[in-house]
Amino acid sequence: MASLALAYLNPGELTAHLAQHAGRVLGVAAFGHNPPEANVPGYPLICIDMPVLGANTLYEVWTSSTPVAPAGNAGIRSAHNTDVLYGCFETPQSPGESIESATFRAYAKLFDFIDGAGYPHLWRIWHYFPRINAIENELERYRGFNVGRHEAFLAKGRMIGGKNVPAACALGSRGGPMAMYFLAGKQAGIALENPRQTSAYHYPEQYGPRSPAFARAMLAGAGHDRKLFISGTASIVGHASQHAGDVAEQARETLVNIRALLTQARHGGFDIPGQDPRLLLKVYLHRPGSLPLVRDQVNAAFGAMQQAVYLQADVCRSDLLLEIEGVCLYPRQTKNLP
Ligand code: 3EB
Fold first, then answer.
1. Which pick of 48, 105, 275, 300 has the fewest CB atoms within 10 Å?
2. Rounded CA gap, 118 and 241, in Å?
C-alpha cells in the first residue's frame, strides 16, 4: 500500500533525501529568495519568494513509499502514486486582471485537472501571493481571492461546506506570481471543523463578500497511513480575531486552536492509532523579531513531538501576527488495542 511522507529540509539535506527517494518524489516546495534548485528537476517543484527565519531556504518535500508517475499538463506540474496526486503551478495576474479573475482561473484549471486525472478529492492546498492585505479595486486582495475561489467552486459544481472543501492556508509572499500547490486523493478525506471557531465558509460578510472555501483540517489516507492536514490556524475564536497587537497571546490562542483540532480527530471515532503522533509545523510570523518568543511557546506546547520551521509572511487578516499550519502524522499501529 502506498503511503505519503513529508520532510522539511535545509539545502544541505536536500540532495541526499532526493537520492534516497529517487522515483518516489511527489513534489517539492522551496521557500526563500531565488532558492537554489536543480536546473531541470525530475519532480514537480515550486518556488515561493518568502523569507525563511534562521536559514536561506526551506525545502518541503513530499514523497511516496511506492513509485510515482509524472502527470503534468495544462500548466500544472504533477506526480502521483496510486492514492494521491501532488500538483503545483503559478498564476500570474494578467495586466489589468483582478485577483478575483486570476484566482477563478487558477481554481477552474485545478479542478479540471484533478477531475480529469481521477484524483477529484482536494485534500490540502497551499496558496501564496504578494500584497495579500493591499486594497485593489476597493477590495483587499485576500478578499478578492476569496471571491474567485468561491465562484470557482460553484462554477465547477462543488458545494461549499462540509465534505467538499480542503484544508488550506493562504499567506502573503514577498513577491512573485500567485503560487499554489496541492495534494488531491482518489478517495475523499474527512473534513474537520474546530468547535472553538466558526467554519470559515460560514464567516459573516464583514470579512468579505464571499466566504473562504476551506476546512479547518482534513483527515486523509488509509488506516495504516492516517494524516491530519492542519489548515492555517490563527488567533481566531468564533469568527473574531483575538489579542490584537499581542503576539504572545495570539500564539497561545493559536496553539489552543491546534490542540482542539487534534482532539477533534482523536475523539471523532476515526480509528486513529493510539500512540503519540508527530507534528510537522510551519509557523508564519508577521514580525521576524517574535521568533524566540513564539518558538518557546511552540516547544512548550508540543515538545519533542513536534518539528517546526519558521517563515516571515503576511497573514490574511492584517490584525493577525502569526499563523501555524502543518501535518499530524500518526504512527503505524504496532499492535491492536483492546
Ligand atoms: C482564518 O482562520 C485565518 O483562506 O485558505 C487560514 C487558513 C486562513 C486558510 C484560506 C485562511 C485560509 O480565517 C486565515
1. 300
2. 38
Q: How many CA atoms lie within 13 A of 69 on its CB side?
A: 6
Q: Please state the rounded mean pLDDT for residues 204-210.
A: 98
Give me the CATH number covering residue 324: 3.30.1330.40
The structure's pTM equals 0.96
Give the distance (Å) from ligand 1 centre to CA of residue 115.
Answer: 24
**Mutation probe of ligand 1 site: the residue of 193, 198, 214 with most atoms within 8 A of C-beta:** 214
Which of 176, 169, 133 minimizes the C-alpha distance to 30?
Answer: 176
60 annotated active-site: no
- State the CB neighbour count (10 A cutoff) for residue 172: 22
* pLDDT recorded at residue 222: 76
Task: Please name the residue that has the C-alpha cell 478517495.
Answer: 187
Mutate to test the pocket of ligand 1, among 181, 203, 231 (most ligand atoms within 8 A of CB): 231
Instruction: Give the tens place of pLDDT for each residue, 89-128.
Output: 999 999 999 999 999 999 999 999 999 999 999 999 999 9
Q: How many domains does the chain have?
A: 1
Residues with CB under 6 A from ligand 1: 168-170, 200, 212, 214, 231-232, 234, 236, 316
Assess if residue 242 is contained within a domain: yes
**pLDDT digit string, tens, across residues 280-296:** 999 999 999 999 999 99
Residues counted in the chain? 338
Q: Is residue 151 part of a domain?
A: yes
